[in-house]
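Customer escalation, tier 2.

The customer says the design service returned an amino acid string that "doesn't look like it belongs to this structure." They asked us to rerun it and document both sides in this ticket. The original structure tokens are below, unchanged.
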């Protein structure tokens, strides 16, 4: 993937850049692996907004991606590398010897014609795109699409360019270093895919104008300071007044920005060796 920058002929183009899509090999998705995606606008089953600033956006189909990689010991050939509007990484259409086709999250460096394989018990090489249990992967290897529960499917490191380093395996657990700096334990029986997730330049895209965010289904975020006191704890005042509070608050009055919100009684807390690094 590369980044394309246009001549600044308009205000929106001056600060923006776009994906050049040169790494794609197909324009239309596999019909048997798409489904209708219903837009919910951040609302739950009761119709209440539980995730703010979501709504609208371009219509899109959902691509059914195989996160489990549970077709074991059957080689698959990479047929196409495709764009998925529902995620930042590329997806690859692979065809198995028995005729079945599946989408997987494509690793960086995967090309059409490559052969990949997933194995739980058999010994296979740690090549890019192969999936195997953490206990079978060499130490210091970078992996993505990692399971947290064996057989549930990959949950960690699925977005563009992400990769987790395997620090070692001891006892029932493998030790992983996440991109955030967090070090945690995961069952050694969990599957992971070798490599980094594709589309590593995604983070360099500059959206440039509000309209492109609206196409993605992201609605504007209004500052609490710009609201009235009835709408937000930061609201009110004349001109550029400060928020007038000891700590920043959420719209519902809870302390925000820098406050730890993780539940201390969460079962997985005992598996976290080192918390993520604080970003400045």
């Amino acid at each position: 993937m590369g980044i394309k920058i246009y001549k600044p002929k308009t205000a929106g183009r001056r600060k923006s850049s776009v994906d050049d899509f040169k790494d794609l090999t197909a324009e239309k998705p596999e019909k048997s692996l798409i489904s209708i995606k219903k837009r919910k606008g951040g609302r739950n089953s009761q119709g209440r907004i539980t995730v703010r600033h979501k709504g609208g956006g371009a219509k899109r189909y959902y691509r059914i991606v195989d996160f489990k990689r549970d077709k074991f010991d059957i080689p698959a050939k990479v047929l196409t590398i495709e764009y998925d509007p529902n995620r930042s990484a590329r997806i690859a259409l692979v065809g198995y010897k028995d005729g079945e086709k599946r989408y997987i999250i494509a690793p960086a460096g995967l090309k059409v014609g490559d052969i990949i394989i997933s194995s739980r018990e058999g010994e296979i090489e740690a090549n890019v795109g192969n999936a195997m249990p953490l206990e079978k992967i060499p130490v210091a290897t970078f992996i993505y699409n990692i399971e947290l529960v064996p057989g549930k499917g990959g949950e960690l490191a699925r977005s563009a360019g992400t990769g987790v380093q395997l620090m070692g395996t001891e006892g029932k657990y493998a030790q992983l270093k996440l991109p955030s700096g967090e070090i945690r334990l995961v069952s050694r029986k969990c599957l992971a895919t070798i490599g980094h997730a594709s589309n590593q330049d995604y983070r360099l895209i500059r959206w440039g104008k509000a309209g492109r965010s609206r196409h993605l289904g992201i609605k504007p975020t209004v500052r609490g300071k710009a609201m009235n006191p009835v709408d937000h704890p930061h609201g009110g005042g004349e001109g550029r007044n400060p928020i007038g509070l000891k700590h920043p608050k959420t719209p519902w009055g809870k302390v925000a920005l820098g406050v730890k919100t993780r539940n201390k009684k969460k079962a997985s807390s005992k598996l976290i060796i080192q918390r993520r690094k604080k970003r400045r």
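Tier 2 assessment: The sequence is consistent with the input. The first helix runs from residue 11 to 14. The helical segments are 11-14, 210-215. Sent an explanation to the customer and offered a walkthrough call.
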